[in-house]
Amino acid sequence: MSLYQIRTLAASATAIALVLSACAAPAATPIAPATTAPAEPTAAPAPAEPASGIVTREYAGSKLTLASQTDQFIEAFRALIPKFEELSGIDVTLDELGYVDLRQKATADFVGKTANYDLITVDIVWSGEYGQNKWTVDLTPLIERDKAQLALDDILPVMWTLGKWGDGQWAYPLAGYANILNYRTDLFAEAGVSVPKTLTELQEVAAKLTQPEKNVWGIGLLGAKGPAVAQDFMAYVQQYGSSLLDKDGKPAIDTEANLKALEGFKALFNAAPPDATGWWWGDRNDAFSSGKIAMMLNWSTAIKNHKNPDLNPFADKIETAFSPLGAEAGKYGFGGWGIGINADSKNKEAAWMFIKWITSPEVQKEWVDNNGSPIRRSTLTDPELVKKYPWFPILLESFEKGDGDYRPREPWYSKMEDVIGSEVNAYLVGQIDAKTALANMQKAALDIIK
Amino acid sequence: MLAPVLIFVLAIALAPLIFSFSISLTDYRLTDPTQAKPFVGLGNYIKAFQDKAVLETLWNTVVFTIGAVTSQVVLGMALALLMAGETPFMRALRSVAILPLALPPLVVGLVWKALYNPQFGPVAYYLKQIGLSVDRGLLGDFNTAMAAVLLIDLWQWTPLLMIIFLAGIKSLPGEMLEAAYVDGANRLQAFFFVMLPMLLPVLFIGVLLRTMNAFKVFDIIFATTGGGPGNATSVLNFHIYKVGLTFFDMGYAAALANILLFMIGVCSAFYILLLRRQRAAESL
Questions:
Q1: Do B229 and A425 lie within an 8 Å CB cutoff?
Q2: Nearest to A303 by CA among A314, A205, A292
Q3: CATH 1.10.3720.10 for the B2-283 domain, yes or no
Q4: Which among A31, A275, A292 is the nearest to B137, CB-wise?
Q5: What is the pLDDT of residues B30-74, one digit of tens each?
Q6: Per-domain residue ranges for chain B?
Q7: Do A195 and A261 fall within a single domain?
Q8: ipTM higher than 0.85?
Q9: Which residues of A touch B77 (CB under 8 A)?
């Protein structure tokens, strides 16, 4: 007997699936790339000269392996490493890794003492973990020994937070990031608003710029559960003038000031695209490039790509300003990367030579021309570079008034970030209220630190 | 002859389990400067059942598993019945229907994330057309995120059950159904009282396989929601990944993994028991 009739009955059960398949049918629907396309090097690098006698051929023939985060400065590594190899005779292998991969591979290398990597780029927030475990070399004695070669006074003071923990310098400053405001001049003019200087003004301006009917929103924010929303919220807390830790470094999250900051942070989402509660960094950059948001607070490292007409059609309408601050705040958010030497490396001196060279004043010009972020005052005030990168004076002042501690550089940072990222996201999507979120964060933070 | 098998079982199956259990009894943290691995007994297991995050993820895992297995069994059976014909068209259709199985779950997650995108995704577009608000997208809304993730899992894994059930249907003796119809059974009665009982062994195997996989769901969550929004889609396996490879708390992560293993083991034992009882009843 045929199964035809039973199949007919079963068809009703499959109807939902078929309808949904039909929904998914228009394959031609354009799907935007998840991440911003990499920038091309903006200038042909000039031939490198040995910087202040730093590079010698003493270690010619040896090999170094560098594990690097694939931030914009990776392009500078790609461009400059061949020159270092030519000058020193040292073979440098660059292992380009995403954030999670880098942390996991580097940790496995440290714990297993396999020394696969000689050099590692170190996120500012990893400093405590690396220092406490002595996974990287404390560079303090080397800095003291070679200070004549290092032009230390030229490195902006805040840059030393990139790798400092306790009394040690566990990574050397490599790429400084300032939290700045990028905005669209045409949309600001159309709305008749000026650049916000305070957080109150930021709320007002963002609201005025929001035109849902045109799918244009006042501001882009990171709301995705995890590091994205945690870092944006911590930056907002810092701009607000509050803090997640007290003067003794103990959690002080459940405070009246942080409640206001959290509520203010959520209020800002009213001027952001509704799906911003699920945004990561790439989503925000894509939204800015596609003209969907009028402004965004972001690391300074993104601005060069946004000013590139090949990557952003609104490049000539984009300007940079200082991050708006709350009444109590006097500092701007600071972050970025250091570069450390694996404590188990067999090539520590060769690795140190590389660090000295890549961060030297002479190489910094090429470093920033190839999308590296500056660490030196001389770079940020170089007339030629300032002409090329007119936002450098804003960076300089942001660095001079920068605060690298608003995200605790402590060994327990990743756990704290996870808690903040979960609770703030839960508040933003309406799962819990602000007081509960702060109470949960405070309790979890105390558990983490004890 | 026994030695190679024993070596295989010991090396491949038992050794990692023993290692996993042994480190679960310690406070082994990769980030501990002393690398002391102090013995804590069942401390990690006790901590797990007092940990709010673990209990939430455990609950979400159970919800996900029940939702995924139930919907996929029903739909898989329906599709198997629909596609049981032996025409060239049906054979071609079956080949197309199993394509989702060939895709890596991570890729499936990313594709569906784009489909669900509230700005340019076709799912959001059609939902807006029928007047449903999808401002944050189905994956971004606390109330719809789990259902949206379940739908992705349904899309990918229903074909597996369809194939398993189809194999069962093909092996059924046609005389039984014919006799039922001759005796006056209608289509529903023929399915529920004749076909389904004969398909029970196959059904149990399908349910067992999907239950084990659904308990371990990770890739789709990793690619789409990261456990959010809030804790809506935070499942145990994703939490284990976070504890082990973000916080590097290897002892605690091993304890959580063993709890997951135990849960899967209990489910498996339950299904196998049912299968044996059913076979015993058949043999009477």
A1: yes
A2: A314
A3: yes
A4: A275
A5: 888 888 899 999 999 999 999 999 999 999 999 999 999 999 999
A6: 2-283
A7: yes
A8: no
A9: 10
